[in-house]
């Protein structure tokens, strides 16, 4: 079974997981994900590949502890094993030499944006990185990202009241200030949909990394259906990257909430069992 | 493997030689044909419908030894048995049935195993009524065939209880590396055959449990997981290596594996891509593909939530669209998860239903409602995007279509709305395109199936073979297994001829 090399808390609620997975490390490309299951009773969940080391044969993901599965992952220690760590899944992101690329990320997306920014930079683009954090102390991987970025912008919500228009406002400011040729956004659904709305008037191609609920991650079940440009797509094999201006966001929001009550029940049951 | 109704001359000669053995003659003499024809089939003992439709334990309990012997006596031991030609893998049915009559259950199991590597599975899930049992002389004479499927199940269960199939002496290892993609019935069969021929076989499987549809699709109440566990442990004893959570085409391609020293390949990746009808509202919350619904329940064990972490929506009013085994499995699952009403919505009529007759019968006993000649045209959601109703249209049967079945045509103005909170779409699966997409030069047909030469199951790529649902589209366990045996023989020949790659 795949062995955990490192699991550490980066900032409150956000953890890094590095796992020995030589085949995945050899093959993975920016924008791909793995399916992880924390233990034999666990659920299969997708996590974006945030970094890899082809020589050591390890793959790194960064995740936010939100429910049972991610809470279980947050308790792993180096040397533990996980029953499933499968991938690399999904189509790699389209990387090209397009000019100026704005890479925007929030919560786990701050890490997930890293391989994209790195690849866009390597492809000769000017790369602006915009990260969204609720408070300054929730920022991580600043060094890694600053080392890549031509410009690094932090959007923090400290000391601001009312409205939730933080990231989109920064996006609009950047678009007003300079010509941007491509935008990529990774993070929670809200972050991605609001950025897509912010860039819609300008028509700049805005790629988002969709995060519907998944089961197998290989195109076998259709749990991950999303509607893009009026057509049903399976995010795990047709995506996860799609043109944000064509995504049916309302449907995605609804489908992500499919199991809301069950998720709470599952977490309560697990907490009661583990912390009686 | 051929689908024709005749058996090869060499097999016919073998069957005749068995038929003429002294013990067979004696057994035939021991009871007159008239006596054998008396009385009907020994019924399969099963759990009461009102009890079994609330849990996932197996419905059929299996024949006892006495019942099995009594059932075997019904077989007339025909000189020219039709049943063998009805079996896609040509089990020597009279020989195994007569061994049962003689009380030699282990020998009977071994006889079945000569042609069928998953007898405990096939004894439970084969559509016997349209295969061996349909050709049975007793059926023609009395209307009720010998319970061949029930006997196959009996001997294989006997074998498993006695410690499982014996691993006879293996030939010395040839050291030749064989890669099998997919641990479904076809992949497991190829692996078993080639391991027994002394080759080094590795099965690469995308999911975390082996069995393919047998583990993620067909529910526990029809095919207990313990049977698969036994088959898998048999393969391990033969030296087969399992690489789970390995998605060929993603984790490594066929070309990567070739570079790693694998010489011949079998692709048994199944037909895993769920079809939808593309009617409005199909992406509402509460509308599932059968694959997702069954995978959550069977593979991820959502029936035991929250002890297991994966949830599934327990519908109160469940509608399952389709009329095949997949649909029947889904609707019976919904009932077991607590649905007050569980409906089958099928666009043709009862006689056209492709599901096994026994399952349809069981479903009716369990309180499933069947709505024939009906199709959904639209799903209606509530303010949270969750399905709350479906709009349907009635059909009537028109002219026969390409499949020979009468084509359903809509009855104008027959729309009606039904309240539902769970919908499972079970209208078929297509081959998953992952491997064709990542294997340059691999030819596929119109429906995405991999093209093969049916004599050898060879694909357009040298050293690469395919079979089962990936080559046929949705088929059956026994056909997948038959393909696998054909492929294994050709792969073994190729390895022995020494022409690698
Ligand atoms: C392609 C892809 C890549 C992803 N990459 C990352 C990543 O790198 N880091 C990370 O932290 N998260 C990532 N996610 C989201 C992550 O999979 C979910 O947070 C995780 O499944 C939650 O599981 P849980 O049991 O801890 O929480 P649950 O109790 O299942 O759910 C808690 C919350 O998470 C949401 N959720 C549940 N299941 C999923 C799911 N499969 N996908 C998305 N949201 C879900 C629910 O709506 C709920 O609000 C990704 C999702 C996708 C589809
Ligand atoms: C719910 C249901 C009920 C059924 N009931 C019956 C029945 O009663 N009787 C009957 O005869 N038939 C039945 N069938 C059909 C029967 O199960 C199939 O015909 C049979 O399983 C096909 O076998 P296979 O080996 O070709 O593929 P599968 O059983 O589909 O196995 C394919 C395997 O390959 C794996 N795989 C796919 N892609 C990859 C990849 N890229 N890399 C690695 N692994 C991969 C899959 O995960 C899977 O484990 C049923 C099917 C379903 C879905
Ligand atoms: S997660 Fe099952 S098809 Fe995408």
Under CATH, the topology of the largest domain in chain A can be stated as Rossmann fold
Number of domains of chain A: 2
Largest sheet of chain B: 5 strands, parallel
Helix content of chain B: 25-40%
| CATH classification class of the largest domain in chain B | Alpha Beta
**Structural class label of chain B:** alpha/beta
Q: Quick one: overall form of chain A?
A: globular
Q: Main β-sheet of chain A: number of strands, strand sense, barrel status?
A: 6 strands, mixed
The helix tally of chain B amounts to 21
Q: Please tell me how large the radius of gyration of chain B is.
A: 23 Å
Q: Which band does the percent of strand residues of chain A land in?
A: 25-35%
Strand line-up of the largest beta sheet of chain B: 3-2-1-4-16
Lateral arrangement of strands in the main beta sheet of chain A? 10-9-8-11-12-15
How many distinct domains of chain B? Answer: 3
Radius of gyration of chain A: 18 Å
Question: Which class best fits the helix and strand makeup of chain A?
Answer: alpha/beta
In one word, what is the shape of chain B? Answer: globular
Helix content of chain A: 25-40%
End-to-end CA span of chain A:
30 Å
Could you say which small molecules are bound to this protein? flavin-adenine dinucleotide, FE2/S2 (inorganic) cluster
On the 0 to 100 scale, the average pLDDT of chain B is 93
């Amino acid at each position: 079974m795949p062995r955990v090399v490192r699991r550490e808390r980066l900032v409150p609620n956000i953890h890094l997981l590095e796992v020995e997975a030589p085949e995945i490390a050899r093959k993975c490309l920016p924008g791909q994900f793995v399916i992880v299951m924390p233990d034999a009773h666990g659920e299969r969940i997708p996590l974006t590949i945030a970094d890899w080391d082809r020589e050591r044969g390890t793959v790194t993901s960064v995740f936010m502890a939100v429910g049972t599965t991610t809470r279980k992952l947050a308790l792993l220690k180096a040397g533990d094993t996980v029953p499933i760590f499968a991938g690399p899944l999904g189509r790699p992101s389209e990387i090209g030499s397009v000019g100026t690329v704005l890479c925007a990320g929030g919560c786990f997306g701050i890490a997930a944006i890293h391989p994209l920014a790195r690849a866009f930079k390597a492809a000769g683009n000017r790369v602006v990185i915009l990260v969204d954090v609720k408070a300054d102390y929730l920022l991580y991987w600043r060094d890694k990202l600053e080392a890549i970025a031509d410009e690094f912008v932090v959007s923090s919500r400290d000391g601001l009241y009312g409205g939730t228009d933080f990231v989109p406002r920064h996006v609009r400011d950047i678009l007003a200030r300079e010509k941007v040729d491509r935008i990529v956004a990774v993070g929670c659904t809200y972050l991605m949909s609001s950025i897509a709305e912010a860039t819609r008037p300008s028509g700049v191609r805005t790629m988002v990394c969709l995060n519907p609920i998944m089961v197998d991650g290989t195109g076998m079940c259709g749990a991950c259906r999303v509607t893009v440009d009026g057509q049903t797509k399976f995010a795990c094999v047709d995506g996860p990257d799609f043109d944000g201006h064509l995504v049916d966001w309302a449907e995605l929001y609804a489908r992500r909430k499919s199991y809301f009550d069950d998720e709470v029940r599952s977490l309560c049951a697990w907490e009661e069992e583990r912390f009686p | 493997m051929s689908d024709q109704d005749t058996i090869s001359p060499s097999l016919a000669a073998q069957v005749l030689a068995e038929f003429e053995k002294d013990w067979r003659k004696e057994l035939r003499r021991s009871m007159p044909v008239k006596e054998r024809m008396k009385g009907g089939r020994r019924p399969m003992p099963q759990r009461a419908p009102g009890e079994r439709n609330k849990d996932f334990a197996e419905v059929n309990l299996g024949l006892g030894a006495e019942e099995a012997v009594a059932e075997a006596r019904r077989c007339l031991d025909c000189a020219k048995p039709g049943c063998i030609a009805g079996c896609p893998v040509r089990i020597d049915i009279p020989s195994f049935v007569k061994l049962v009559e003689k009380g030699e259950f282990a020998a009977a199991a071994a006889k079945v195993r000569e042609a069928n590597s998953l007898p405990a599975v096939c004894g439970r899930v084969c559509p016997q009524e349209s295969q061996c049992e349909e050709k049975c002389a007793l059926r023609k004479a009395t209307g009720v065939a010998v319970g061949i499927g029930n006997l196959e199940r009996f001997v294989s269960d006997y074998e498993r209880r006695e410690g499982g199939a014996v691993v006879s002496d293996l030939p010395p290892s040839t050291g030749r590396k064989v890669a099998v993609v997919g641990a479904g019935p076809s992949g497991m069969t190829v692996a078993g055959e080639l391991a027994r021929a002394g080759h080094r076989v590795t099965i690469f499987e995308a999911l975390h449990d082996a069995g393919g549809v047998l583990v993620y699709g067909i529910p526990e109440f029809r095919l207990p997981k313990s049977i698969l566990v036994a088959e898998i442990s048999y393969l391990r004893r033969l030296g087969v290596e399992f690489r789970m959570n390995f998605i060929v085409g993603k984790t490594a391609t066929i070309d990567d594996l070739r570079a790693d020293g694998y010489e011949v390949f079998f692709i048994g990746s199944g037909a895993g891509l769920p079809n939808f009808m593309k009617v409005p509202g199909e992406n509402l919350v509460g509308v599932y593909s059968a694959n997702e619904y069954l995978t959550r329940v069977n593979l991820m064990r959502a029936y035991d939530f929250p002890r297991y972490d994966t949830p599934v929506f327990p519908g109160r009013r469940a509608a399952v669209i389709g009329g095949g085994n997949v649909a029947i499995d889904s609707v019976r699952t919904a009932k077991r998860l607590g649905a007050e009403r569980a409906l089958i919505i099928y666009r043709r009529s009862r006689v056209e239903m492709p599901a096994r007759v026994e399952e349809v019968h069981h479903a009716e006993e369990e309180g499933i409602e069947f709505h024939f000649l009906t199709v959904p045209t639209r799903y209606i959601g509530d303010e949270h995007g969750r399905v709350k109703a479906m709009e349907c249209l009635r059909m009537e049967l028109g002219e026969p279509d390409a499949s020979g079945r009468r084509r359903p045509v809509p009855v104008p103005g027959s729309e009606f709305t039904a309240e539902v909170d769970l919908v499972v779409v079970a209208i078929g699966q297509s081959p998953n395109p992952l491997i064709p997409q990542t294997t340059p030069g691999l030819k596929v047909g119109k429906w995405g199936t991999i093209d093969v030469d049916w004599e050898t199951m060879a694909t357009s790529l040298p050293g690469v073979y395919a079979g089962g649902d990936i080559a046929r589209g949705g088929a059956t366990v026994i056909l997948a297994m038959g393909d696998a045996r054909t492929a294994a023989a050709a792969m073994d020949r190729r390895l022995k001829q020494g022409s690698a790659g």
